[in-house]
Amino acid sequence: MTVADRGATYREVFAQPKFRVLFFARTAAIAAESLRIFALSVLVFERTGSALLSALAFAAGFLPQLAGGLLLGALTDRIRPRPLIIAGYLSGGVAALLVAAVDMPVALQLTIIAVVACGTPIFMGAAGRLVAEVLTGDAYVLGRSVLNIASSGAQLIGLAVGGVTVAALGARQALLVAAAGHVLAAVIVRLGLPDLDGVPGEKGSAVRASLTGAGELLGDPIIRRLLLVHWLPAACVAGAEALLVAYATARGYPPGSAGALMAALPVGMLLGDLVVGRWVRPATRERLSRPLILLAGGPLILLATGIPVGVALAVLLLSGTGAAYQLGLQRPLLDATPEPRRGQMFALLSTGLMTLQGVSPVVLGAFAQVSSTGTAIAVAGAATMLCLFVVPRLGPPS
């Protein structure tokens, strides 16, 4: 087996102290963010009785990331990573604390969340750049896989804890718990991560440099296609996921089944990342990108038929495993990106993922209004499969 085709191990990944710090901080922050999203949606609905405003409370943390990623992404390559990451986690905690503790109009609550969301791609980009610096070769890909697994697990924990916490303490108190989780993530980074130097970036206006850098990255055909194939299938699947509550109701599934259906996708994602990230060789992993995209979308088409709830759970679990297609694209994307732009590339990657995952539920929800939820989910599955044509031809692992 060649060096390029030798898979890394979890021992190698977690042997890096900086990665361990980022892993535990990210897990705490994502669990806190999932709890915050859930609690804020409940709080807004309790105050207004409006399903639309409750949905906006969910989207407020996603859509504004487009502005931050495009206009301020260059900061990831100018500012030292530790203060940038700490600021990101603390701002999330302050936002949750303000919404919980201060009586204010719903519009102001959503504005606070939206302002904080603008900075999310910046500290996510800084963290991504740092992971790429401390992990090399296949250890980098496995490290990204571990972070994906942590994200899926933390989301499940955050949603589960959110339901229990809101039921036991109320939405405002649950927001205080979420704030504490964000502060914990910041403390982990402050105590465990060295205050590393920043990467010298362009001088002058950060906005101008950000727009210039984004233009250069998206102007490269390989980088553009690799970013699109990260964004588009994930957006299609997220749109389908947003319809699962309505789908369960329309199919007459038993009470409580909607929660199980929504949990099936992240569980599948966790399993896919675990298997493909750890036990599939690097060269094979990259060749599997296209088949895994088909696996992510194909099963969703079955939901257009009247399948029982148990089969629907299996379909969603299988679809979730297909999300591991991204692992085969991690090395090519990193290799194609100039080192001085890597932080901004990770910011742009996060921006596109979050923005399109915020837009797709609206688009598919509107389509479901004029068709049916099952048809809309099947369309999302078909669109996911078509994304395989975006994958560029990849060279052998270096």
List the helices and strands and how they pair.
Blueprint lengths: L9 H5 L2 H32 L2 H9 L5 H8 L8 H21 L4 H13 L1 H15 L3 H32 L1 H22 L13 H14 L1 H22 L1 H8 L5 H23 L2 H6 L1 H9 L11 H13 L5 H10 L5 H29 L2 H14 L12
Which key terms come to mind for this protein?
398 residues; mainly alpha; Growth Hormone, Chain: A; 77% helix
Notes on the structure:
The protein starts with 9 loop residues before the first helix and ends in a 12-residue tail after the last helix. The mean pLDDT is 87. The chain is globular. α4 runs antiparallel to α18, α5 packs antiparallel against α6 and α8 packs across α17. It is 77% helix and 0% strand. The protein has one domain: Growth Hormone, Chain: A. With 398 residues, it is mainly alpha-helical.
Summarize the structure.
The protein has helices at 10-14, 17-48, 51-59, 65-72, 81-101, 106-118, 120-134, 138-169, 171-192, 206-219, 221-242, 244-251, 257-279, 282-287, 289-297, 309-321, 327-336, 342-370, 373-386.
Low-confidence stretches: none
The H-level CATH homologous superfamily, spelled out, is MFS general substrate transporter like domains
The top-level CATH class is Mainly Alpha
Strand content: under 5%
> What number is the mean pLDDT?
87
CATH topology: Growth Hormone, Chain: A
Oligomer: single chain
Number of helices, counting only DSSP H or I runs of 4 residues or more: 19
Gap between N and C termini: 14 Å
Gross morphology is globular
CATH architecture: Up-down Bundle
Which class of secondary structure composition applies to the elements?
mainly alpha
Task: Tell me the Rg in angstroms.
Answer: 20 Å
Q: How many discrete structural domains?
A: 1
Could you give the count of β-strands? 0
Helix fraction, binned, reads over 70%
Order of H and E elements: HHHHHHHHHHHHHHHHHHH
Largest sheet: none
